[in-house]
Design goal:
The protein is mostly helical. The chain has two domains: 183 residues, MFS general substrate transporter like domains (Growth Hormone, Chain: A), CATH 1.20.1250.20; 29 residues. The longest helix has 30 residues. The two termini are 43 Å apart.
Length: 218
């Protein structure tokens, strides 16, 4: 199996994990945060809005770092920051500390890995890049369907701190090993995808031509 597809599978798992636990799941914490930190909806909404703004600003910076240090290092950094961020969130006692963890560890941790993963897929694919990208993002829907309801159940049953702690541990346990599967092609590995994609139609056409020639012979 072409190794690029393993990178795609890994990316899809990351999309499911990060999407279900954070990108979709973080909204489930809104009311618990509001009650725990005794802040208004406006104050909390501002933090969520700043999260989106920060994610957009850091994009070019992370892209530059991906080119410099490679996608694997960026993904590992993001996984550790996101996992530790959730664990710290579970221990947060004040709104200022919440802002540091939320806008520091969590926002950075959950946005940087996708830049690394996208860059890795771009290195592995040319002809089937659109298919690879589409399959990689399928995990987001799976995460929203399977993982987010589990987060909701944890919050309702055990409280938001337990849910955050469990999320952080899960991210570290699953994310760190998966990060080592994200890498650039070595040597001629990237050329192999081009070769296979180019050869398949030619072999098919050659087979048809050969059959037609045999039929035309008396």
């Amino acid at each position: 199996m072409y190794y690029g597809w393993w990178v795609v599978v890994t990316a899809s798992i990351f999309h499911a994990l990060f999407g279900g636990l954070y990108h979709t799941g973080i909204s489930l914490y809104f009311l618990p945060f509001k009650r725990t930190f005794e802040v208004s909806s406006t104050q909390l909404s501002l933090a969520f809005a700043l999260r989106t703004l920060e994610g957009g600003i850091e994009g070019p910076i992370v892209g530059y770092l991906v080119d410099k240090v490679g996608p694997k290092s960026i993904v590992i950094f993001g996984v550790i920051a996101g996992g530790v961020g959730f664990i710290l969130l579970a221990m947060t006692q004040s709104y200022p500390a919440f802002l540091v963890v939320f806008l520091g560890f969590l926002t950075i941790g959950f946005s940087t890995p996708f830049h690394g993963i996208t860059a890795a897929i771009n290195h592995w694919f040319r002809r089937r890049l659109g298919t690879a990208m589409s399959l990689a993002t399928v995990g987001s829907a799976v995460g929203g369907f399977l993982i987010t309801p589990l987060v909701a159940w944890l919050i309702l049953t055990f409280g938001w701190r337990v849910a955050a702690l469990a999320s952080g541990v899960l991210i570290l346990v699953l994310g760190i090993p998966l990060s080592f599967l994200v890498r650039r092609p070595r040597g001629s590995e990237a050329i192999r995808e081009e070769t296979l994609s180019a050869d398949e139609p030619n072999e098919h056409v050659a087979g048809i031509t050969s059959q037609e020639e045999q039929k035309e012979k008396p």
